[in-house]
Amino acid sequence: MAAFVLVPGAWLGAWAWEDTTRALRERGHTVLPLTLTGLGERAGQATAETNLDTHIDDIVSAVDQHGLRNVTLVAHSYAAAPVTGAAGRLGSRLERLVYLDSAPFAEGMGMLDLMPPQAAEELSKQVADHGEGWRLPVPSFEVLGSFGSLAGLGEDQRDLMRAKAVPQPFGTYEQRLTGLAEPGPGVDRVVIACDDFRGMLDAGVPMLAFMNQPPWRRFDLSTGHWPMLSAPGELADVLHTTVS
């Protein structure tokens, strides 16, 4: 059985993985869903200094504190940035990297580099006007739909997100990854692609082309960008398959 460490995307906490965590544990796996600093039940720990390094340290510390080995590290959306930073620091404890609707970050890349300048400027304006200069407010679902497909998010899932999502410390978007260490060559590499990301992979988007080639293994999931909420059981099935 595997040891899964589940890292959620922006605005989310460990709560988002609840159903997927339950399903994986029922299959006998060890599962550690993470809440990064400043999010979920740790919202009160957020400060203007919370940044990408903070979240990288969170992941490494969680693996250390729980004494985990043979780790399958799962990165949803934004979490691709801190997971990429943490992966090289886990050494022989890391068995597998799973990028869920996301992709590894390159040295010197940050979240704001993934969007057009106008979109990055709009986020910065939201932070300045409504986030005290350092917090990125939770977007409306209309805006979230421009980041990724909302397919499968019914009213119950949307109500849960409205109730539990919290502003994202903007330093995690502004800081770029530096000093990356590569994971060992034996680390298994997996991509799980949902609707929009699957389309980009199928279209052969140049910056993602490597994920369609060995050593990468690809699994597709027919749902929107938040599968832990829209298709938690199906996501657990796919994650189980990656380690079987």
UniProtKB/TrEMBL annotation:
Question: Keyword set for this entry?
Answer: Hydrolase
Domain AB hydrolase-1: start-end pairs: 4-238
Entry's InterPro entries? AB_hydrolase_1, AB_hydrolase_fold, Sec-Metab_Biosynth_Hydrolase
Q: Extract the GO molecular function terms from the UniProt entry.
A: hydrolase activity
* Pfam families noted in UniProt: Abhydrolase_6
Residue intervals passing through the bilayer: none
Q: Which PANTHER family match?
A: AB HYDROLASE-1 DOMAIN-CONTAINING PROTEIN-RELATED, ESTERASE_LIPASE_THIOESTERASE DOMAIN-CONTAINING PROTEIN
Protein name (database record): Alpha/beta hydrolase
Name the source organism.
Answer: Spongiactinospora rosea
